[in-house]
Every structure is written in C-alpha cells, then in structure tokens.
Design goal:
The chain is of the alpha/beta class. It has 14 helices and twelve strands. Strands 1, 2, 3, 4, 5, 6, 7, 8, 9, 10, 11 and 12 form a twelve-stranded mixed sheet that branches. α5 packs across α7. The protein is globular, with a radius of gyration of 20 Å.
Length: about 350
C-alpha cells in the first residue's frame, strides 16, 4: 500500500513506555534495534498500537520504526549499498515478486512464524507473508458533493459532476480505472491492457479529463484534499477514508463498485543481522488474536486464519473482503504488473509530463 514513489519520512525509536524519540543511526549493525518499515499515516498509527508496542512490551525490547513511499528501486539501492538498516518492510504485491526474483529478501522460515497453515493461502509466499488486504475505492465528501458518484464512469463525467479529480500518480490502478470507466468488464481489463490498443484506449480516457486531474503520491493526501475541497472526487485507500470518518469527524462517501483490491506483505531484507528477531516479530503479528485488533482501528482485511471470527459483524462489513464489497471488485493482477510495469511506467511518465 504505497504512499508515493521515493520519500523516506522518518526514523523513530519507540521506547517501552510508548514514547517516540529520535533514533540513533550510528549503532553497529550487530547491536542495532529491529527496524520495521511501513506506510505511515493512520495505518501505521494503528499498527503501532496493535503490533509494535505490544511486541516491544512482550519482548522487553526496542524497535526502530520508519516509513517509506514504496518502489522496488529503493529496496534495490539499499541492498546494493551494503549499508541497509531496514529489517522488516511492508511491500506491495509486485515489489514482493520483483524483490524475491532479484534476491533482495530472505526466504521465510514459515515454521518460525506459525506455519503456512496459520495463514490464508494467498498470504503465503517464499519471500513474504501477507499483512493486509485493502482496496482502492472511489471517495468523495458528502458535505460538498450533492450528487453521489456511483462508479468510475461518474468519476470521468465532469459535465454531470464538475470539479477536480485525483488519482494515484503512476500507471498501476490508474489505467485499470480508465478502462473500467470506459465500459470494459473487469474480467477483460488486463487482457486488453496488455495490448497497445488497450493502453491507447486507457490513455485516451485519461485525456478526456486531463485538465481536471491532480495526482497524489501519499496515502494521506486524498482525505486531506477532500476535506479542503481541493478535489471533488479521488481514488483512495479504503482504510484512510474510513479512518478520516471515524477519527476526524468527516462524512466521506465510498463507492465500492469497481474497487481494486490487493494484498501487501511483510518481507525480511536480505542479510539482516536481526533475522531471528524479525521472524519473532512476524510470528507475533501473525497471530489471529493480534491481527483481530487491526480492522476495528482501520478497516483492512487480515491474513491469519481465525482472525475474522474474532471481529464483530459491523467491522467485517467495512472490509474489502466483505462479500458485498468483493463482488464488485477487480483484483489487481500482480503477474501483469511484474511483466508490464516498466513499459507502462515509461508511457505514463511521458504522458503526464506533456
């Protein structure tokens, strides 16, 4: 669940008392604290309460906590530098596949993190273990927009619903949304997008609202832009919109029709001197009882078997994995983006800079 391209936000040390202090970067590798890297914002706030502080208290240990904005190039550069200080990182699906193929991650010892059967099958990969299911949804501010959008076709209908729109900067999700808005059935999106004609069609659709588009790079931006009135509609991580409603008193709407859902995973960076502590951390956060604490704080689906049975029905209904939400979804095709990311990124970057 990426907040943008490159953008290391911070390094923080979480003390046992739960305070946050500035981390010391000069500690020797063999003595430094475990460093866990995630996506920041409301999501990492929830992780801190459910995973990070409880693990530190249970182990009488400290943890360095950092945030990042994604991009396999960031991980590649850290490994190649020989001075990587990250141990456990949450990555998007294509980053997991590419990084594993390139040897950026340790192979996971699933016996040390509860066993493969502890997780739903989709969460098990030789280099990673699933962290959350989440969706890109269409969101708007009910207080500002009297005509509620029903789906991506309305997102592109500036005559019916005027105002600026926002999409995540990059080809992934943007091109799928363009084709869905143009009437392509979900089951045909990736077959079509693999062709030049399909890519042409997606970019023509984007051209139709080019002057009304803004591009977000961090997951915190869509709710901020909706709240300020900077945009009328945006795609966004479902959990960030729900968190803004729950904690900031917002009245943002979510259209689940055509949502794009995917799975993020935890990985252990190659050569980590904290490999055993990293596995212990993953074992801790992989327990159903621990994972059940996350969705009530931010409604993302979790991956431990039995976790959903511990959640109230009202929470389950808000998750991307809820039947009524999943029925209207397009699953992001990881293999497609592994094969086509470079080609479509080059074309997108050229298009957006024109």
């Amino acid at each position: 669940m990426r907040d943008g391209m490159l953008g290391l936000a911070r390094r923080a040390v979480l003390a046992l008392a739960g305070m946050v202090a500035i981390g010391a970067g000069g500690a020797a590798a063999q003595t430094r604290d475990l460093t866990v890297v995630s996506w920041g914002g409301a999501y990492q706030d929830a992780q801190r309460e459910v995973y990070f502080r409880p693990w530190m208290q249970a182990r009488n240990a400290r943890m360095l906590e950092e945030t990042w904005d994604g991009g396999v190039g960031v991980l590649r550069a850290r490994i190649q530098s020989g001075a990587n200080t990250w141990d456990v990182v949450q990555v998007e699906s294509e980053e997991l596949l590419i990084g594993c193929e390139e040897g950026l991650f340790e192979r996971l010892d699933f016996a040390a993190i509860g066993g493969r059967d502890n997780y739903i099958p989709q969460a098990v990969h030789e280099c990673g273990v699933g962290a959350i299911y989440y969706s890109f949804v269409l969101a708007w501010d009910r207080a500002r927009l009297q005509t509620a959008p029903r789906g991506w076709a309305d997102f592109f209908d500036t005559a019916r619903i005027p105002g600026r729109r926002a999409l995540r900067r990059g080809p992934k999700t943007t091109l799928e949304i363009a084709l869905l808005a143009d009437g392509v059935p979900p089951g045909e999106v990736y077959r079509l997008l693999a062709t030049e004609a399909g890519a042409d069609r997606a970019f023509r659709k984007l051209d139709s609202i080019r002057r009304d588009l803004a591009w977000w790079e961090r997951g915190s931006q869509p709710p901020q832009w909706l709240a300020s009135g900077e945009v009328a509609m945006t795609n966004a991580y479902n959990g960030r919109i729900a968190a803004a409603n729950a904690t900031d008193g917002r009245d943002f709407g979510i259209a689940w029709d055509g949502n794009l859902y995917t799975l993020d995973s935890w990985v252990v960076m190659r050569g980590s001197p904290n490999r055993q502590r990293a596995l212990d951390f993953l074992n801790f956060v992989g327990q159903a009882q621990q994972q059940a604490g996350l969705p009530p704080r931010i409604p993302y689906g979790v991956t431990a078997r039995g976790a959903n049975a511990l959640l109230p029905q009202a929470v389950l209904a808000q998750l991307p994995t809820a039947p009524q939400n999943a029925a209207a979804a397009l699953q992001i095709d990881d293999r497609f983006w592994l094969d086509h990311l470079d080609r479509l990124s080059q074309r997108f970057n050229s298009w957006v800079s024109r």
